[in-house]
TrEMBL record, chain A:
<protein>
    <recommendedName>
        <fullName>Cytochrome c oxidase subunit 3</fullName>
    </recommendedName>
</protein>
<dbReference type="InterPro" id="IPR033945">
    <property type="entry name" value="Cyt_c_oxase_su3_dom"/>
</dbReference>
<comment type="similarity">
    <text>Belongs to the cytochrome c oxidase subunit 3 family.</text>
</comment>
<keyword id="KW-1278">Translocase</keyword>
<dbReference type="InterPro" id="IPR000298">
    <property type="entry name" value="Cyt_c_oxidase-like_su3"/>
</dbReference>
<dbReference type="InterPro" id="IPR013833">
    <property type="entry name" value="Cyt_c_oxidase_su3_a-hlx"/>
</dbReference>
<keyword id="KW-1133">Transmembrane helix</keyword>
<keyword id="KW-0472">Membrane</keyword>
<comment type="subunit">
    <text>Component of the cytochrome c oxidase (complex IV, CIV), a multisubunit enzyme composed of 14 subunits. The complex is composed of a catalytic core of 3 subunits MT-CO1, MT-CO2 and MT-CO3, encoded in the mitochondrial DNA, and 11 supernumerary subunits COX4I, COX5A, COX5B, COX6A, COX6B, COX6C, COX7A, COX7B, COX7C, COX8 and NDUFA4, which are encoded in the nuclear genome.</text>
</comment>
<dbReference type="InterPro" id="IPR035973">
    <property type="entry name" value="Cyt_c_oxidase_su3-like_sf"/>
</dbReference>
<dbReference type="InterPro" id="IPR024791">
    <property type="entry name" value="Cyt_c/ubiquinol_Oxase_su3"/>
</dbReference>
<dbReference type="Pfam" id="PF00510">
    <property type="entry name" value="COX3"/>
</dbReference>
<keyword id="KW-0496">Mitochondrion</keyword>
<dbReference type="GO" id="GO:0006123">
    <property type="term" value="P:mitochondrial electron transport, cytochrome c to oxygen"/>
</dbReference>
<keyword id="KW-0999">Mitochondrion inner membrane</keyword>
<comment type="function">
    <text>Component of the cytochrome c oxidase, the last enzyme in the mitochondrial electron transport chain which drives oxidative phosphorylation. The respiratory chain contains 3 multisubunit complexes succinate dehydrogenase (complex II, CII), ubiquinol-cytochrome c oxidoreductase (cytochrome b-c1 complex, complex III, CIII) and cytochrome c oxidase (complex IV, CIV), that cooperate to transfer electrons derived from NADH and succinate to molecular oxygen, creating an electrochemical gradient over the inner membrane that drives transmembrane transport and the ATP synthase.</text>
</comment>
<feature type="transmembrane region" description="Helical">
    <location>
        <begin position="129"/>
        <end position="147"/>
    </location>
</feature>
């Protein structure tokens, strides 16, 4: 029929789910190949495929929503549910690492000296760079909220400024954390302390980078007039993700950096 | 129960010929503004019960010890006895000796507490075959 009699979006056939799946397969098997046979080719190929998939899939979604008008209210509602469910799944992901941390730190084994922090570990001072990092992320939560209100109020210049500031703060956090990683007196190989510390904070750092990238995409879209004061779900999704990243950091800070020291 | 009264006591030259050092006072470990206060006896009983669980697992043993050592007190010998027996059930000699080291550490400046506790625990230590850090020569770092 010429016109659809409903408000939903029947997406056109797309190759990106397949290329994404193939990319994921190549990355994971490539990882195994790298471990055993010391060749990074397959994994790199998978990574390139995955990056291309992400770029093109999300570009297509922007085309469908912003330029072709397919993101009607019910469609947007579905996208909201989707983002919320995704973030929920990420919460559970981090929950696992917190479980590991508390299992090891509430009942430290004799090999560690029966104490936490384990014997021989010099922990980072929670009131130095980690506290600064906390302030940076909290501030970025304020600036992203400022950006949201600016969008809703149709303030283009302020939106651009506050969004830029948010991204800068995100990059600042990443730079500080990278320096901390370099300067830390312990490594990931230093027993269960090192494992829990670097895996938990490492995945968090990865999520900061992902979140910063998402915000940067929103920044570019804002420059190109994609968002309206009424309809800017891409930005809202990025802001939700960013707040999630901030909250995870607060838990990390209180549990691992502060209590765990 | 060697509680907060420790800080106020004049313990210097107290001899060990008394039945037990006079450190006890009926002060609760925490001073809440309301609610029922646990007595020393109830505290001790609770911890003896904890470590006496027949199928206590290694994690619970370590968690219990860490929590207990976190308190501002030196545990009563009867609690330590239950903990040492739990170590035996779990084949964990290392933790058993570590418990003795922790007692010495928790005594702080009150150097007569540790020999007293060891004295009280001697029957248990020989029953379970647990050497003291001193016997192993690991008390000097």
């Amino acid at each position: 029929m010429a016109h659809q009699a409903h408000a939903y979006h029947m997406v056109d056939p797309s190759p990106w789910p397949l290329t994404g799946a193939v990319g994921a397969l190549l990355m994971t098997s490539g990882l195994a190949i790298w471990f055993h046979f010391h060749s990074m080719t397959l994994m790199t190929l998978g990574l390139i495929l995955l990056l291309l998939t992400m770029y093109q899939w999300w570009r297509d979604i922007i085309r469908e929503g912003t330029f072709q008008g397919h993101h009607t209210p019910p469609v947007q509602k579905g996208l909201r549910y989707g983002m919320i469910l995704f973030i929920t799944s990420e919460v559970f992901f981090f929950l696992g690492f917190f479980w590991a941390f508390y299992h090891s730190s509430l009942a430290p084994t004799p090999e560690l000296g029966g104490c936490w922090p384990p014997t021989g570990i010099t922990t980072l001072d929670p009131f130095e760079v980690p506290l600064l990092n906390t302030a940076v992320l909290l501030a970025s939560g304020v600036t992203v909220t400022w950006a949201h209100h600016s969008i809703m109020e149709g303030e283009r210049k302020q939106t651009i400024q506050s969004l830029a500031l948010t991204i800068i703060l995100g990059l600042y956090f990443t730079a500080l954390q990278a320096m901390e990683y370099y300067e830390a007196p312990f490594t990931i190989a230093d027993g269960v302390y090192g494992s829990t510390f670097f895996v938990a904070t490492g995945f968090h750092g990865l999520h900061v980078i992902i979140g910063s990238t998402f915000l940067a995409v929103c920044f570019l879209r804002q420059i190109q007039y994609h968002f309206t004061s009424e309809h800017h779900f891409g930005f809202e999704a990025a802001a939700w993700y960013w707040h999630f990243v901030d909250v995870v950091w607060l838990f990390l800070y209180v549990s691992i950096y502060w209590w765990g020291s | 129960m060697f509680r907060a009264a420790l800080r106020a006591s004049v313990s210097g030259a107290r001899s060990l010929t008394r039945a037990r050092p006079q450190y006890t006072a009926s002060v609760a470990a925490r001073s809440y503004s309301h609610g029922k206060q646990e007595t020393d006896e109830e505290f001790d009983a609770r911890w003896v019960t904890y470590f006496s669980k027949p199928d206590i697992d290694a994690w619970e043993l370590r968690k219990g010890m860490n929590t207990l050592i976190g308190y501002d007190l030196v545990p009563e010998p009867k609690i330590l006895e239950a903990a040492l027996k739990a170590c035996r059930r779990l084949d964990d000699l290392a933790s058993a000796i570590r418990i003795l080291e922790a007692v010495k550490d928790k005594s702080g400046p009150h150097k007569e507490i540790y020999p007293y506790v060891i004295q009280e625990l001697l029957p248990t230590l020989s029953e379970l075959g647990i050497p003291t850090p001193e016997e192993l020569g690991i008390d000097k770092a």
